[in-house]
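Deviations from the work plan: none for this task. Representative record:
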Amino acid sequence: MQRLGVYTSGGDAPGMNACLRAVVRTALTNDLDVTGIRRGYEGMIEGDFVEMDRRSVSNIVQTGGTVLKSARSEEFMHEEGRAKAAQQLRQNKIDALVAIGGDGTFRGASKLHDEHEFPVVGAPGTIDNDLYGTDATIGYDTALNTAIENIDRVRDTADAHNRLFLVEVMGRDAGFIALNCGIGGGAELILIPETITEMDMVKERILSLMTAQRRSTIVVVAEGDELGGARGIEQALRDDPDFSDIDLRSTILGHTQRGGAPTASDRVLASRLGVAAVESLLDGHSDVMVGLVNGETKLTPLRNVYGRRKSIDYDLLKLTQILS
Ligand code: F6P
C-alpha cells in the first residue's frame, strides 16, 4: 500500500475533521501518500481528489462540518456507479480507503470492497450513534450536548409561562440522542422509536403533569418516533378538547444538532479512531469498522455494523420513569 484515500460521507458530524486529521497524519507518519476525496461517493465517481499533507489538516481539530465536504450519492448505490468510482481510484493510484461516515457510507464501502477488492476500513461518524460495533460514534456527544443546551433554554420559557413544550431531536430511526438528552435535560417524558408509543398514554401522562401538578412540562420526542414527531403530537393534542386550556408549543431542534465545535470527548474519540483506522489497514485488515468498546479499539466487519441494530440501554429508560 502506497497511497491512501480518505473521505467523509453521509450527514456531517462534529469530529469528522479531527478524525480526518488523525488519518492523514498517521498515514504520512507511516510514509504513505494521502489523497482526500471530496464530497464522498459523488466526488469519488467524478474524481474530485486533492493531495493532502500535514498542513492541509492544520487547525481543524476544533471545527465542525467536514473540510472534505460530504454528500449522499444516488449513483453510488448502483453497480455502474461503483465501477466508475473504482476506476477513478485505480487511475489515481489509490490503494486503500478510510471511510468516515454512518451506515449508508459503510454499505457502499463494503460493496466497493466485495465488487472491486478494495481494502477499506471505516470510522464511525454520525450524530445518531446508531452503529453497532462502537459504544459511541464521532459527533454523538456534541449533538447530545447541543440538544441539552437547547432544552435548558426551552425550560426557562416553559417555566416562565407554565407551558408544555414538545422538543423534537434528531436520530433518524434511533432514540439515543432523545433518551440521553431527555435524561440530561430533565424531560418529564421521552418518546423514542425503540418503544411503542401510544397517544392515549402520552395524553394521560401530560394531563397528569400539567393539570394535577400545575408544572411546566418538556416532552422530548425522537424524530423517528411513530406518533409523527413533535408536530404530529402537537396536532393530536390541539384536536383534543381536554387540552384546550394547556399552553402548548413544539420546537424542532433539527440541524442545529449537526454542526458546531466538537466536544473534548468527540475530539479524542475521533483522533483515536482515525489513528486506529490507518493502523488497521497497515496490519492487513479490511472491510471492517474500527470502534471503541469499553475503552478499547475494536474491529467489527462492516456487514455487522449496518446489518445489526445497536440496542439502547433499557435501564436508562427505566430511570426516566423514576426521575420525572
Ligand atoms: O444521520 C444524521 C441525520 O442528521 C439524522 O439524524 C437525520 O435524520 C438526517 O441526518 C437528516 O438528513 P439531511 O441533513 O439529509 O436532511
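The pocket of 6-O-phosphono-beta-D-fructofuranose is lined by residues 11, 102, 126-128, 170-172, 223, 258 (CB under 6 Å).
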